[in-house]
Amino acid sequence: MVNTNLYNTFFNVKQTGGTITKGLSALLYDKKELLVKTFANLIFQLGITYYVMEKTDVSKDKEKKEKYNYTFILIIIYMFAFIFILAFIPMPTWLKFILFCGFSYCSGYTLSNLKSFVGEEVIKNALLGTFSIFGIMFALGLFMLLSGIKLGIKTAIFLFFCLLFLIIAKLFNNFTEKSSAISKNLTIIGIILFAVYIIYDTNTILQKNYDGDFITASLDYYLDTINIFTNLVNFNSDS
Predict the structure, then answer these.
(1) Are the beta carbons of 87 and 28 closer than 8 angstroms?
(2) Cα separations in angstroms, 202 against 126, 155, 188, 194, 207
(3) 8 touches 14 (CB < 8 A)
(4) Close Cβ partners of 21 (under 8 Å, ≥ 6 residues apart)
(5) How many Å apart are CA 62 and CA 57, to the nearest integer?
(6) Are 179 and 3 in contact (CB under 8 A)?
(7) How far apart are CA 185 and CA 12, in angstroms?
(8) Dihedral of CA 173/167/189/38: which sign?
(9) Contact between 232 and 129 (Cβ < 8 Å)
(10) In whole angstroms, what is the distance from residue 181 CA to residue 115 CA?
(11) Could you give the angle at which helices 153-175 and 180-207 cross, rounded to 10 degrees?
């Protein structure tokens, strides 16, 4: 006979403290359309980023380097504008998708500069590490929700202040006497922080009603993935 508790966890629903928690299969079934679209878009956007990163040649030629630096500034402005627009301005899904594609292209262009500092092997190892971390953290976020652990606004505020601290610490380290030991520690903190963000985003996506807005859901994962990747590249390049 199948263990009843195990069966209820994966295929049924259970009641704890007056609240009903759905089993794994029921939860995934309810969210299947959103999750399929979210991950399909995530893979597509990451594919754009990787393709542009690999195909963009950041030459050491002075003129080309200056052109890259100028374009880089414009791209950063666009990327911040994109996140602001997506967060505060309602628009149809098709337009969000097009803007997201532009954002992914810009990300790939900025990341292409990594090839000037690290080898192809470091980038491949960082990619493998990123996907491994994502898979583990997604599973952890899923099972935390199944266990009745729901992350809310307090977690979001805590993570925001952790991110703010990390940004300030990195800026301070870069504009003072840069310490390689501090840089490495901040890189490790960055990897851990964005790994926790994957847990939080998974927990949130499975809780909230996104009304079919898979673009916003996939953007959360996209930003987590890119940040983990860049931190892993930095960590391996400093090793």
Answers:
(1) no
(2) 22, 13, 22, 12, 9
(3) yes
(4) 13, 14, 15, 146, 148
(5) 13
(6) no
(7) 43
(8) negative
(9) yes
(10) 23
(11) 160
3-state secondary structure of 20: strand
Tokens of 236: 């391996």
For residue range 37-54, list pLDDT tens digits in order: 999 999 999 999 999 998
pLDDT per residue as tens digits for the range 183-209: 888 899 999 999 999 999 998 888 876
Answer left, alpha or beta for residue 68, where phi above 0 means left and psi between -120 and 50 means alpha.
alpha
CB 189 within 8 A of CB 12: no
For the stretch 153-176, pLDDT in tens is 898 899 999 999 988 888 887 777
pLDDT of res. 59: 59
Distance CA(229)–CA(94), nearest Å, equals 27
DSSP bridge partners of 19: 16
Q: How far apart are CA 223 and CA 205, in angstroms?
A: 15
pTM above 0.85, yes or no: no
